[in-house]
Amino acid sequence: MKLFFDQNVSPRLVAGLSDMYPGSVHVRDVGLARANDAVIWGYARDHGLTIVSKDSDFHQVSFLRGPPPKVIWIRRGNCTTADIKALLRSSRTEIRAFGTDAAAAFLALS
């Protein structure tokens, strides 16, 4: 599964998780650092990426539009990049199952 990290999470996650999620990118890497949610959604859909965000907006859009793309919603308040990295590593099995479930639109991790 290739992840697409939203602006509200660190771009360092791309390198920090490349062994588990190869091909992942941050919005900044593709020139979308200031793009609105609709543009980010379209890019993720068109490139087979799963959006990872701390923003509830993508969670809400996933209900309206459904997949693709899929959305992983990080439901932690103030947390470090290391915390998010650890969460995504420890949730690998759950994330993989989510990725193979055609009907699943979003996954909330906390």
Structural overview:
The structure is a single chain. By secondary structure, the protein is α/β, with parallel strands linked by helices. The chain has one domain. 41% of the residues lie in helices and 15% in strands. It is built from 5 helices and 5 strands. A 5-stranded parallel beta sheet has the order 2-1-3-4-5, with helices on both faces. The two termini are 20 Å apart.
Helix/strand layout:
Blueprint: E1 3-5, H1 12-16, E2 25-26, H2 37-47, E3 50-53, H3 56-65, E4 71-74, H4 81-90, H5 92-100, E5 106-109
Parallel strand pairs: 1-2, 1-3, 3-4, 4-5
What's the short version?
The chain has 110 residues and is an alpha/beta fold.
What key phrases describe this protein's structure?
110 residues; alpha/beta; five-stranded parallel sheet; globular
Radius of gyration over C-alpha positions, nearest whole angstrom: 12 Å
Distance between the termini: 20 Å
Order of helix and strand elements from N to C terminus: EHEHEHEHHE
Report the portion of residues in β strands: 15-25%
Helix/strand-derived class? alpha/beta
* DSSP helix fraction: 40-55%
Number of DSSP strand runs: 5
Number of helices: 5
| Spatial arrangement of strands, main beta sheet | 2-1-3-4-5
Write down the overall mean pLDDT: 95
Shape: globular
* Count of the domains: 1
Poorly predicted tracts of residues: none
Could you describe the largest sheet, including whether it forms a barrel? 5 strands, parallel
